[in-house]
Amino acid sequence: MTNKKEMRELILNIFNTRYACKGYDPEKKVSEEDFKVIMEAARLSPSSMGLEPWKFVLLNNKDIKEKIRPYAWGAEVSLAGASHFVLILARKPIDMKYDSDYIEYMMNDVQHFTDELRAVRKNKLKDFQEKDLKLLESERVFFEWVCRQTYIPLANMLTAAAMLGVDSTPMEGFNYDQVEKILIEEGVIDPEHFGLSCMIAFGYKNRDHRPKTRRKMEAVLEIIE
Ligand SMILES: Cc1cc2nc3c(=O)[nH]c(=O)nc-3n(C[C@H](O)[C@H](O)[C@H](O)COP(=O)(O)O)c2cc1C
């Protein structure tokens, strides 16, 4: 069992040595055991009211990867050599609105709330979506709220991969309209329920990283007494 001091060192070491991989060795594959753990880190991620507004797609199809490549500059090296390439999809407002079938399914079948508690939670969600976040004013604003949440599993996957010694790349460097169009045409995305939020790749690097650059703690943390 690691003690607190060792745990602190371990955490700092993981965050200091995680890099966005900018070149993959196509010969090196991530083991199924490691990939499963990385995906568990995604699945177990927190979300607003626990509504899990995402879906992950492991894209192995070479033809589809080739088709999206011209429109995904930020994914060039990952599409070429990464062992695993995952799309992170965000649910559309039709599913995430307080009165949708999906919300009913989540609160009933997954969260197992009683009828009474479901009614209370849905009312809370309605107020939250309508008044606090003002999501109902525009489909785009609503969808962006969902996309924001998908960056939590994205981050957890990056950290889980780093803990396992697996290199990874988070990606949003692509033309959303073009890439989404291809993924819809190829039957990867059902546009009624999902939109593309971001991507993540896993594998093993084939070149050294640039040394990590970050601002100092004093520049990013302000303490108000
Ligand atoms: C939301 C997000 C989107 C990113 N998109 C890309 C991308 O499309 N392609 C890429 O190679 N790197 C991408 N990166 C990686 C960043 O360039 C990298 O995290 C940053 O330069 C800091 O370096 P480090 O992660 O190695 O510490 C992205 C990172 C984040 C968090």
TrEMBL record:
GO CC annotation, single: cytosol
Cofactor(s) it depends on: FMN
Keyword RNA-binding: no
GO MF term (any one): oxidoreductase activity, acting on other nitrogenous compounds as donors, with NAD or NADP as acceptor
Pfam families per record: Nitroreductase (PF00881)
Domain spans labelled Nitroreductase: 17-204
Keywords recorded for this protein, A-Z: Flavoprotein, FMN, NAD, NADP, Oxidoreductase
UniProt key word NAD: yes
GO BP annotation list: 2,4,6-trinitrotoluene catabolic process
InterPro entries: NfsB-like (IPR033878), Nitroreductase (IPR029479), Nitroreductase-like (IPR000415), Nitroreductase/BluB (IPR050627)
PANTHER family: NADPH NITROREDUCTASE, OXYGEN-INSENSITIVE NAD(P)H NITROREDUCTASE
Family label: Belongs to the nitroreductase family.
Protein name: NAD(P)H-dependent oxidoreductase
Organism name: Acetobacterium paludosum
Species lineage: Bacteria, Bacillati, Bacillota, Clostridia, Eubacteriales
